[in-house]
Amino acid sequence: MATKKSKGAKSAEKSKGAKGAKSEEQAAKVKDAKAQAAEAAAKREAHADPTADTPALPSTAWAADPAPLLRVGAGFRLSDTDPRATPGYEGRKADGVRDLALAAAEVDSLQEKLFANSLFEGPEQHRSLLLVLQGMDSSGKGGIVRHVVGSVDPGGVTHASFKKPTPEELSHDFLWRIRKCLPADGQIGVFDRSHYEDVLAGRVLELASPEEIDGRYGIINDFEREITEQGTTVIKVFLNISPDEQKARLGARLERPDKHWKYNPNDIDSRLLWNQYQDAYQLVFDRTSTEAAPWHVVPADHKWYARLAVQHLVLDALQNLHQDWPPADYDVEVEKARLAAS
């Protein structure tokens, strides 16, 4: 019987050949993804809880599991990606909005199961999820928080936004402020920007020496391996927005008085360093997309797709925990009798 704890992403001919190779590679990825999607569906059915009060997820416009299509692997080049693409999804915006709403109840139910298990002792109970969101300004990080994570009980979510370090934070190592915000057992934690700012802005703005920046990649890998071994599933997402789309979104903020609060003049400063930031992100993907904590590059020019894809990643992570509802640590029949007699 379980024991409850205390509270406490040259020539014309040569160019055509290169594009053909990329097309074949993408087709192979889609084929593999479809096979994995079918396998995942079979696993979900095998682990379905007949007593769950959340109905089975209805048919959607997903044609393939997006996770392998978005995951950063060997030879990945950010410059080869299309921010307007919708990998694995055959629907349009209206379909995406519908499918996001359809899956929200399952995400909520699985998060509740994650939290319920955390109240009991046992190695499988010490589980949590960390969603790391990175992207250029106006890439949609806040929208992910509202439309994806916002579908679950707020009590099961922690949110941290990492801005310019304070004097106190600068007096410690760069992971000090990060560790303080890690999710507890049973929680979904969301980082709106993260420890990666220390190798992104840190490199582009030369906030530390190149030697110090280079040393941080290995420290980050060790840190993420440590927390995954302790039971935290890490989902790292780069919201890949195009410069044209960013310009349109920033312009919309300037045109609307109710959005002025979201605009920051520093956004233009960062925009002028676009290429440098893209190079810095490429280094991040090259050096920190690991088996324990891979990166996913999510096309983000279509907000609806980005939200849907990230929701899918979160849903997959929760399903892959294969958690059951924890058993009662009391005699259910006795309590029924006591209730009837009360």
Brief summary of the model shown:
This protein has 342 residues and is of the alpha/beta class.
Would you mind describing this structure in some detail?
The protein has 342 residues and is an alpha/beta fold. It has a single domain, classed as Rossmann fold (3-Layer(aba) Sandwich). Helices cover 50% and strands 9% of the residues. It has 13 helices and 5 strands. A 5-stranded parallel beta sheet has the order 2-3-1-4-5, sandwiched between helices. The longest helix has 35 residues, at 12-46. It is globular, with a radius of gyration of 22 Å. Mean pLDDT is 87; it is low at 7-23 and 43-58. This is Phosphate--nucleotide phosphotransferase. Residues 10-34, 41-50 have a biased composition (Basic and acidic residues).
